[in-house]
Amino acid sequence: MSLIGEHLSSDRNPESSYADSDDGDRDRIASSSPVLQESSHDEYTLTKSKKTSSTVYSTPTSRSEYTSSLSQIARSELAKLYDKIYGDRFCLVTQTSDADILQIAHVIQRASKSHTLALYEYCLGLKFKTLHVDSRRNIFYLRSDWHNLFDKNRWFLLPDVGTLEDVNSHVTEVVASRGGATSEAVTSFRSKWNLKMKTRYTLISISFTESFLRETGGQPTTHQYPYSDFPLLECHVAPPFAIIDAGPKCKRDQIDQIVLDRYPQQTEGSTMESDAKELKQRLTLLCDTWDLFMNPGVRAAAKTWEKSETGGGKRKREQSDAGQTDGRSTRSKTRSAHGGDRKRERSPNSSGATLTEHAVSHLEKRQKADNWETSIRHWVAESTRASSLDPNLPLDFTSIFACTTVDSTTNV
């Protein structure tokens, strides 16, 4: 069995998660639950705003663009967070702190489509466009090879039973509240999973079976598949985000095989049997929670909610146009009530003619004045300088100009 090295060949963008799959591109019922009024804040977004003497982070104007690189401020704030709560910057799996091979991984894919992020916001009780994938709760350090494996769905982070139950209950309550099925207050995402909280995760391998080294107390330790002796990983990543990543990776029909691979020798009453049962329970809870996101009814409701949020401006314009139409209709009805469709009378001018008659007469005069052919014939007939021309003959501008030129020369 080979030992995985410091690097694996990869042509992926080292700055963010780009999935190979096609998944994932003002609450109307906010009064029913405080959670539904929750917005993005310091824990989820990284755009700095100097509004007070302390550091404040405001909601970005738009979600992250996966075609652009991770912003420098996002990198800087993640580094500060690691220095503060961990004391150092290191790979979550291998514990290496070599900055040259550390990369920033995204739990919820940075390339997630807009409608997919809207679904997550809907199910987690967040306001529209406030789940920012570059938030510190969604990014963490991995060595380049492990980053590559993570993005290729080769492994995932699995929370404990209690955390899985909390996320499942939270999503269930939020979806019920969104749909108006209950008016009970739901604990907010922010209070449940704040930035200072670290969760313990189990590394679950899907198709990765190689041995690897992990630095423990300055000494490298070899871990072999199925990694049943691998320690729990303590991380600041928000558990709902970890479940959103793990849900598509873990298929329900794979649960028994994952458990059997991790605990191949189970005897009745043994610790291994107990651990296997707990793992199966956790994986089943993971699939159950992911099914809440994938429920056709929930997806349809989230899509409707997204349309209502993005179509607000359009509805206002339509209402404004409707108001203008109603105004015009009202004026038309008023005129009809005072004489039907009759034409409005014009004020008489000084000559006694109506304004309309005067305008028609003026237009006829202008048309006559603009008739250049008539004007030239009139000039030919009356001008002594053009007496040699027959006014009834077709106009010959060469003769007219020649006559005019000779006449002018003679008069000099």
General description of the model:
- β7 (212-216) and β8 form a beta hairpin.
- The radius of gyration is 39 Å and the shape is elongated.
- It is mainly alpha-helical.
- Helix content is 44%, strand content 10%.
- Residues 5-61 and 403-412 have low confidence and may be disordered.
- The strands form four sheets. A three-stranded antiparallel beta sheet has the order 5-6-9. Strands 1-2 form a two-stranded antiparallel sheet.
- The longest helix is centred in the last third of the chain and has 26 residues, at 312-337.
- α4 packs parallel to α8 (271-294), α6 packs across α8 and α7 (255-262) packs antiparallel against α8 (271-294).
- The chain starts with 46 loop residues before the first strand and ends with a helix.
- It contains 13 helices and nine strands.
Category from helices, strands and their pairing: mainly alpha
Order of helices and strands: EEHEHEHEHHEEEEHHHHHHHH
> Low-confidence spans: pLDDT under 50, at least 5 residues?
5-61, 403-412
Question: Helicity, in percent?
Answer: 40-55%
Query: Strands across the major sheet, in which order?
Result: 5-6-9
Counting DSSP E segments of at least 2 residues, the number of strands comes to: 9
Tell the overall outline: elongated
Report Rg. Answer: 39 Å
Mean pLDDT: 75
Q: Indicate the proportion of strand residues.
A: 5-15%
User: How many angstroms separate the termini?
Assistant: 116 Å
Number of helices: 13
Largest sheet: 3 strands, antiparallel
Q: How would you describe the oligomerization state of the chains in this entry? A: single chain
